[in-house]
Amino acid sequence: MYTLGGSARYAQEMGLLGETPPDWPRLGVPEIDSATHGFAPGTVGVVGAHTSVGKSSLALWCMMNSDCPQGIISLEDSPSILGQKAVCAEAGLSFRKLLDGVPSHLQQQVEDTIEKLDADGRHLPLVEWGLGYDVEKIGHAIERLAKAGCKMIWIDYIQKIRQPADADRRTAINGAWAVIQQSAVKHHVCIAAISQLGRNASKRDPDIHALKESGDLENEARWIVMLWQDEGDVLCCSLRKNVWGGTGATGIFRRDNQGNLRHSSEVDAFGDWRRDGTE
């Protein structure tokens, strides 16, 4: 129980009443980070999109480009798949082409990229492979990532959490959300829970009510980001709910000529990746 004065002191401790913006975990999307100054530790938000739009690719881009220490509990892609995608993103190579094998003239580039990703004792971002995890194991995974230094933790994706055999889907998702929320508070981290959209949701500019199990997720989430494919290869990433404001902030992403997701500032008019983000 708090007095109003005690509540105000707690707000100070959370960085809400200081001379500078609070040092909160940032998602990694520049436009959203600028509008929000991050999301409060101890909160859970949703990143929603249709299947195959680029949810996992966005998570990887954010983890590799944000100055906030991040990690991911991947309930779908294995560490080897994420590692290969990270190499392709860092080196500007095609993931699909490398599935056929790494040509001899690219072997050294791949090795140099792996060394770069692992340089100077760098251990973040971290990947926890959670295939088949139930909600109890998800809670333990959040604890491990938090203790390793992660401040923003992605869950890819919430519908993949193994549910009790005797629970209906909505009840199971609600139970999982409660455990995830408790873990976020306990370990003082922010969690981005990726969620699919319902089949009948609009393909372009979907509403937050389109989230699967939306009656619960849209109410429980402290912030919601929606992704959708716009004309051509454009991926829009828009903040649609946030109790601290900044809604409407939208980042634009595109696939480069090698198929890697990039922020629009990183890709020129011909689809080539600008490694330094300049013209």
Task: Briefly say what this structure is.
With 279 residues, this protein is of the alpha/beta class. The chain contains nine helices and nine strands. It has helices at 4-13, 30-36, 55-65, 79-91, 95-98, 107-117, 135-147, 169-187, 214-220; strands spanning 44-49, 70-74, 126-129, 152-156, 190-196, 223-229, 234-242, 250-255, 261-263.
Description:
By secondary structure, this protein is α/β, with parallel strands linked by helices. Helices cover 34% and strands 19% of the residues. The protein has nine helices and nine strands. The chain has helices at 4-13, 30-36, 55-65, 79-91, 95-98, 107-117, 135-147, 169-187, 214-220, and strands at 44-49, 70-74, 126-129, 152-156, 190-196, 223-229, 234-242, 250-255, 261-263. Strands 3-2-4-5-1-6-7-8-9 form a nine-stranded mixed beta sheet, sandwiched between helices. Strand 6 and strand 7 form a beta hairpin. The N and C termini lie far apart (55 Å).
